[in-house]
Amino acid sequence: MAAEIHSRPQSSRPVLLSKVEGHQDVVSAALLIPKEDGVITASEDRTIRVWLKRDSGQYWPSIYHTMSSPCSAMAYHHDSRRIFVGQDNGAIMEFHISEDFNKMNFVKTYPAHQNRVSAITFCLTSEWVISTGHDKCVSWMCTRSGSMLGRHYFTSWASCLQYDHETQHAFVGDYSGQITLLKLEQNTCSVITTLKGHEGSITSLWWDPVQRLLFSGASDHSIIMWDIGGRKGRTLLLQGHHDKVQAICYIQLTRQLVSCSADGGIAVWNMDISREEAPQWLESDSCQKCEQPFFWNIKQMWDTKTLGLRQHHCRKCGQAVCGKCSSKRSSYPIMGFEFQVRVCDSCFESIKDEDRTSLATFHEGKHNISHMSMDISRGLMVTCGSDRIVKIWDMTPVVGCSLATGFSSR
């Protein structure tokens, strides 16, 4: 049963298998090579490197290629051995890697953006390379001809991208905190909807095409799950990080979400339970518990000869309350609040001890994490960041996957 997957001791934690060092600047992206003891990295030191594990257990670069501009994003399609590397100058370069991963041949350059490329995805069926950039646009180009098919502009930097290959829907997160759902056509696109819920820039997206769920991480330290397939607009809020959420990955098989933040935090969320949706915050001119006026309610302050109070909100019921009526703090994991938040006194009394049981596990990656990628079939994760270090993790102690066979700590 799926529920048994999560009944693990709290001492279980990710196992660091290897550290790969050698880059001279921020590592923008790192990807595990499927079915191989290898990692592909792209860095702002203008290099793309393919690292293979030697008999000594150390990783050595079998490919070391220098680009004309810092590398900012990367996509790799294993079946066709094609790599797409986005750069600071807005160009995307395509390469083909040999079967032994010892040679990389240049294919073509795509003039995708006028500024830094922030995310790339490749669709083999349509032969499109889709990308977002700091020129405030998403572009899609034909990989056969190298020509631009279409562009769509936003009001702020486009920061991250997910794509549904079957329906040709693109999800684009931007620095204003919005996520735009687009339907891409051959030479045009249409805006389906805009998702608003974050209070900071969108830093990461993950699309699960099976359950039709979209997960978004943001600089407001939170994650939101959007039920796209249900079309009910249902959203779940997850708060457990102390810094901006840099990368997320949903494991559909075990209903777990893995997230990483800039301070090195790694969280594994149990999504295989019925969670409660956080309430909308209510507005009122006076406390909805004691009816004392808030400081902008001049009339009631004058009538009652009292000073106005500051407005707060209970995270559990959403009511507008004063500080005296919301003096308590509590975690409430079923609603996504993994650390203590403000609740009104009546809600505090209604929360039982068992309601405070955590529904996520938290671990320390011990380095700045700006990008994360998982090989779900093997239960492996790779993280990288501004400290120029790449770390390879065995995640099987904390996630349900137990097929990690390619990598070993020896």
From TrEMBL:
Superkingdom per UniProt: Eukaryota
Keyword set includes rRNA-binding: no
Residues of the signal peptide: none
Renumbered ranges of WD repeats: 20-51, 195-228, 238-279
Primary subcellular site in the record, as a coarse category: other
Entry's Gene Ontology cellular component terms: early endosome
Single GO MF annotation: zinc ion binding
GO biological process, alphabetically ordered: positive regulation of toll-like receptor 3 signaling pathway; positive regulation of toll-like receptor 4 signaling pathway
Keywords, ordered alphabetically: Endosome, Metal-binding, Phosphoprotein, Repeat, WD repeat, Zinc, Zinc-finger
Matches recorded under SMART domains: FYVE, WD40
InterPro entries: WD40/YVTN_repeat-like_dom_sf, WD40_PAC1, WD40_repeat_CS, WD40_repeat_dom_sf, WD40_rpt, WDFY1/WDFY2, WDFY1_FYVE, Znf_FYVE
Residue ranges of every copy of the FYVE-type domain listed in the record: 281-352
Locations listed in the record: Early endosome
tRNA-binding among keywords: no
Known function: Positively regulates TLR3- and TLR4-mediated signaling pathways by bridging the interaction between TLR3 or TLR4 and TICAM1. Promotes TLR3/4 ligand-induced activation of transcription factors IRF3 and NF-kappa-B, as well as the production of IFN-beta and inflammatory cytokines.
Xref: PANTHER family: LD41958P, WD REPEAT AND FYVE DOMAIN-CONTAINING PROTEIN 1
This protein's name: WD repeat and FYVE domain-containing protein 1
Organism this protein belongs to: Steatornis caripensis
